[in-house]
Amino acid sequence: MATLRELKGRIGSVASSEKITGAMKMISSAKMHKAEAALRRLLPFRNQIEAIISNLLGADAPCSSPLTVVPDRVEHATVVVLGSDDGLCGAYNVNLFKFLLGHIAALRDRYGEGLHVNIVTVGKKMDKAVRKIATHRISVESATVNSKAEGDAVKAFNDELQRRFLAGETGRIDIVYQNFKSISRQRPVAAPMLPLSVESFSEGKEEAGTARPYIFEPDAASIFSTVLPMYLLALVQEVFGENRASEQAARVMAMQSANDNAKKLLEQLRLEYNKLRQQSITNELLDIVGGQVRD
Question: Are 259 and 18 in contact (CB under 8 A)?
Fold first, then answer.
């Protein structure tokens, strides 16, 4: 049985842990709200780009781009998976890793078992997990950016992915990440990046059909080829933003759970301490009463 001194020490340790997890929860919550705000700032840009592409597709002029060309045969696929660089975020990386395995299986069902998959990892935790499944048909490389990357770093990463596709080094590029819904809800998704599907803009094309006609300068095809890379950049920036928001949301929930567990443990330890202290006082009183009776 623990002594009063031992229990008091454990109570102090748990109380400190409760304060630490509470502080970490507040910090993660602030970072999550910051990431949410950044996501909201990205939406107008992407919506405008989509509207331009929809109007271009609604025009009579032909629009084509190497970024929309579907290879006749896909023998090499690239999967970019975004995880975290830091821990203490619950099952965030584990859920992403499990989803990645399922996505690789789905790609092989579609393109054949001989498909070579190159996994580009973003985040130290994800890189460590994915390297365990590397085989002769699954290669793993660390991305040149981390999970906190923004601005020029994300643009350079996006340009490199486009270069690989245009050079024929890979026939398909997908991005696996956690889609941010709310603080308590994030789900892993696999977003196809390249080749771009023109059909994905069909909804916007219908809306563009009711819009007033545009005069394109210099011409629709040139604008289409210029706008598509901008759309891809907006897509990748949004993915990185959602990954940051989802990671911090998962960390908030993990710290909340840890804080709740610390509170429960603290209550149990205090109850045990008070019982042991009361028992000690009772024994001392009995010793005093017993000594008086003998006298």
Answer: yes
**Sign of the alpha-carbon dihedral angle for 78, 80, 85, 90:** negative
Distances from the Cα of 225 to the Cαs of 1, 56, 71, 124, in angstroms? Answer: 75, 11, 18, 35
**The amino acid at 281:** I
The series of mean pLDDT values per 10 residues for the chain, 295 residues long, is 79 88 89 88 87 79 84 94 91 94 95 94 94 92 91 94 94 95 88 87 52 70 88 93 92 89 88 86 79 59
Fold of 31-252: Pyruvate Kinase; Chain: A, domain 1 (3.40.1380)
* Structure tokens, 233: 């950049």
Domain boundaries, the chain: 31-252
Residue whose tokens read 């069902």: 109
CB 118 within 8 A of CB 139: yes
Q: Spell out the residues 6+ positions from residue 18 whose beta carbon is closer than 8 angstroms to its own.
A: 259, 262, 263, 266
For helices 92-111 and 220-294, angle between their N-to-C axes, nearest 10 degrees: 140
